[in-house]
Structures are given as C-alpha cells and as structure tokens.
Amino acid sequence: MTQQNTSPSKEKAVSVTLMIIDESGSMQSLKTATEESHLGILQSIQQEREIMPNLIQYVNTWTFCQNSVREKQLLTKIENGEELQSLVLRPDGSTPLFDAIGTACTKLENQLTHLKLLNNNTMVTVALFTDGYENSSREFSLKETKRLIERLKGQGWSFNYYGSDQSVEEMSEKLSFDHSMKMEYSSEGFREGMQSYSLKSSKDKVEYMKKMGLTIDDVL
Questions:
Q1: CA-to-CA distance for 20 and 32, rounded, in angstroms?
Q2: Domain edges within the chain
Q3: CB-CB contact of 63 with 72 (8 Å)
C-alpha cells in the first residue's frame, strides 16, 4: 500500500485508526476473511468522511508473524472517492504480539508528533486482531508493552483487543486494554469481530465529535 498525503488539516478534528493484525501461520484459514474485513473497515471509514466532513481520518496498518513486524499500510489519509488498496496477508510462523504493539505504537506516536497531530483535537484508536497468544517477541516484554499502552492512554489513545483464544480477557487486562472481544476461531467469527469493531469505532467517533461541540445533526 502506498502512502497518501499526510499533511495536517485545518478541519476541526482528527481520527487516527491503527490496526495491528496477526499474520502468523495459524491465520492461514482466516486469511481471506481477515483481508476482506480489513477492506470493509477502510470502506466504512471512507463512508464516514461523507457523513462526518469535519473529521479528517487517517489509517495505519501493521501485521506480525514469526520474528517480523511489518507496516503494511503507511499512515494514510482517507479521502472520498479514492481507491482503497487491499491488504495481502502471507501467514507464517509464530506470534510476536508484544513486539507488534510496541513497534507500531511507538512509530505512530513519532509520526503524529512530527505532523503536529498529537493534541486535544485528535483521537487515536488502536485495534488488535489475533487468533493466538504471545510466543516470540524479542524487543518488548509484557511489562514494557503495558507501560507504553498506559502512557499512550494518558494522551487519550484507546486500545481494543479482538482475539480467538481463551486468554483474550486475561491478556487484555494484563496489557491494560480498554475493550476486548472474544471471536470464534473461524472465518465467520473474524468477519463478525472485525465488523463489530468497525461499528464500535463509528459510534465512538460520533461521540467524540459531539464532545468537540458538534451536534448529532452536524454529524449524521
């Protein structure tokens, strides 16, 4: 995916969505559902630009597998009418979950600081989608990842954990995530989970716009 224009906007508010998606070997049977659901989230964000014109939106997507954490979609400004490029997953290896969260969030924070977007007019939402549990991180420990998350939550970031293993609630609590959902380990389960996140995200943005001083009639 190519990087789009990321120049700061003069619009009233900014929303940044960071998606961190499991690409480990066990995701092979969920590959198509995850790719299509990721595109569906992008399409929803693009539609939101039409009904919430005062909210400029950016998206950043990372994947993780084996000992690799990859930025698959650079920080991209979503515009009306522009073609959205699909995510391509190549599932392989183990699950460096802590490294993925730590690396993606650290880089995004640096980018937003450089773009002067880290302020009271910006909401940042992180969504993690995984079918398993941490088993191969080398750079970030649980303690270090939690410390980073809590610091970013202090800046107004929100964190959402969507997983299909039995430890979803436990891991979400250990990492200090704000919200968690257990998904069925199936294509339909991942579709439903990612759609649930998309709907929740849209509602959160409406509430955010209201807090910014816009009425519902201005937003919808």
A1: 16
A2: 13-219
A3: yes
Is the Cβ–Cβ distance between 129 and 185 less than 8 Å? no
Cut 0.90: pTM above it: yes
Domain 13-219 has CATH 3.40.50.960: no
Q: What is the pLDDT along the chain (220 residues), one digit of tens a residue?
A: 445 545 444 447 899 999 999 999 999 999 999 999 999 999 999 999 888 888 999 999 999 998 799 999 999 999 988 899 899 999 999 999 999 999 999 999 999 999 999 878 899 999 999 998 899 899 999 999 999 999 999 999 999 999 998 789 999 999 999 999 999 999 999 999 999 999 999 999 999 988 887 654 454 4
Radius of gyration (Cα) for the chain, nearest Å? 16
